[in-house]
Specification:
CATH topology of the largest domain: Heat Shock Protein 90
Strand order of the largest sheet: 2-1-5-4-3
Oligomer: single chain
CATH class of the largest domain: Alpha Beta
Helix content: 55-70%
Structural class: alpha+beta
Number of domains: 4
Largest sheet: 5 strands, antiparallel
Distance between the termini: 160 Å
Shape: rod-shaped
């Protein structure tokens, strides 16, 4: 039985056309996939295989179609010529597909290794990004902490009431806080500016230049100094007692040695210490004076008594009478000094009672006014009506104000003014009485000694030097203070501070 050839021809021709169509479609699809991800080796492999298969499909399909058409047209001899070429193209195509397939396994392994390396690199990259972010956060946090720390120490530097200074080895002031500038009187200088005008040497403010050299050498040797007392002089000539604490530091960035100073102004403390020493000295002298006064008072009384008995029996006008009167006069002067010593020592009894300071001052002025008017000395009174009555010894306070007014009169001489002012300081719980004069003033070197017994700047015979000492003892006995301010050629101001010891019912009224 012979099968019909026509269906076979149709299948061969149609199949060859479809093979070419599908091969071209596969090439287009592989090109599109390769275009989306050129680094994907799988798409590269598909692209190569699809091209090879497309060559095979075109070669085989065209060959079959040509074969059938040539055989139908009775051109077999042409087919015999073309057949070897078609077969060789098919063979080459299959060889290419086989070679690509054989080498794909190795390519695939390399590709997988590349992918693993890529993922590892990606992980390392992400870790580096994370570490970089953490580092940036840490740097930002540390920067903020450093900023807060700098602000904190800058506030301490700016707000400190003690001098804080940074000084170079040669003494140049590199930086100084406002308290130090105010202390040295250099508020207007820009210490960190350029030029010689902004350079200030710390050593120039030392009262004794050798102090700065000694301090610098000690810092270089020991690296620190604690509680060193050095006297300074500000630009306006004011003397300052400075308590130094310092440390040296080697600046790595600037390659220089610098000193850090903290200087406390202890001038007021020194003055208080001197006052305490003065008070202690006066107390010791008072105790000594009391003992001596008691030992001398009785013999003086006996001498004075016998002298007066002898005067009664001696006629006036004789030389013996005059000698006895001289003995009597000097004995009385000695007893007056002894009584002042006893008052200074506060051994005499104190009788305190409510009294008005204004009335006491007025009574003293009524006694001294005539003498003051004769010397053409004006009296100015400024009484504060808020000052209450105080509990005090009126007789002793009269003695205090009489001494102060008489001292002011002697300091003025002739033609001047004495101003007496009272005021109430309710917050500090005391009454202030100031006696100011326009006299010659007191020499600064004499100020620490003016309350010493027997110390006086008056001419011989004008005073015993016990007036201020006695006044000092009386005021201290009342729990108060007596202060003095004076400038030569401009006068003096003596201030008496008396405490408020109880509540008062109103201005000028006595305590209950």
């Amino acid at each position: 039985m012979t099968l019909p050839i026509f269906p076979v021809l149709v299948v061969d021709l149609v199949g060859s056309g479809l093979m070419i169509f599908f091969a071209v479609a596969c090439v287009r699809l592989s090109l599109r996939l390769y275009g989306q991800d050129r680094e994907n080796v799988l798409w590269v492999y598909l692209l190569m295989v699809s091209h090879a298969l497309a060559v095979f499909a075109v070669s085989r399909g065209v060959g079959h179609i040509a074969k059938q058409l040539l055989l139908l047209g009775d051109y077999r001899y042409l087919w015999d010529v073309l057949r070897p070429y078609s077969g060789s193209m098919n063979t080459i195509s299959f060889c290419v597909v086989g070679a690509v397939t054989l080498f794909f396994e190795r390519i695939w392994k390399v590709y997988q290794q590349i992918l693993r390396d890529r993922r590892a690199l990606q992980a390392v990259h992400e870790e580096l990004v994370s570490l970089n972010k953490r580092l940036e956060d840490l740097v930002s946090e540390r920067t903020e902490e450093l900023k807060r720390s700098e602000q904190k120490f800058r506030r301490i530097f700016e707000a400190s009431r003690d001098m804080i200074a940074v000084v170079a080895l040669d003494g140049t002031v590199l930086d100084m806080n406002p308290a130090g500038r105010e202390m040295l009187g250099i508020n207007g200088l820009d210490l960190q500016g350029e030029g010689a005008a902004s350079r200030v040497s710390f050593g120039t403010f030392c009262a004794h230049p050798e102090d700065w050299e000694n301090l610098r050498e000690r810092l270089r040797r020991e690296c620190y100094v604690s509680d060193a007392e050095i006297d300074l002089v500000s630009r306006d000539g004011r003397e300052i007692n400075g308590l130094f604490s310092a440390a040296s530091q080697r600046s790595i960035m600037e390659k220089m040695e610098i000193f850090h100073f903290v200087v406390k102004d202890v001038s007021q403390r020194k003055a208080m210490q001197k006052q305490l020493l003065q008070a202690d000295k006066l107390a010791s002298i008072g105790q000594l004076a009391a003992g001596v006064a008691h030992e001398i008072n009785n013999p003086l009384g006996i001498i004075l008594g016998y002298t007066q008995l002898l005067i009664r029996e001696e006629p006036e006008g004789t030389e013996r009478y005059e000698d006895l009167k001289t003995i009597e006069r000097h004995t009385r002067a000695c007893k007056t000094i002894v009584e002042d010593l006893l008052s200074f020592a506060r051994r005499s009894p104190t009788r305190k009672e409510p009294a008005s300071l204004h009335d006491i001052i007025t009574e003293v002025l009524s006694v001294a006014r005539h003498n003051l008017e004769m010397r053409r000395i004006e009296i100015e009174l400024h009484f504060d009506p808020e000052v209450p009555a105080l509990v005090l010894d009126k007789d002793k306070m009269r003695q205090v104000f009489m001494n102060l007014i008489m001292n002011a009169q002697q300091a003025i001489g002739k033609e001047g003014r004495i101003s007496i002012q009272t005021s109430l300081d309710a917050d500090r719980r005391h009454v202030r009485v100031s006696v100011a004069d326009t006299g010659v003033g007191i020499n600064p070197r004499d100020l620490p000694r003016i309350f010493d017994p027997f110390f006086t700047t008056k001419s011989p015979g004008e005073g015993t030097g016990l007036g201020l000492s006695v006044s000092y003892g009386i005021v201290k006995d009342h729990g108060g203070e007596i202060l003095v301010e004076s400038e030569p050629g401009k006068g003096s101001v003596f201030t008496v501070l008396l405490p408020l010891t109880a509540e008062h019912s109103g201005p000028g009224e006595p305590y209950e």
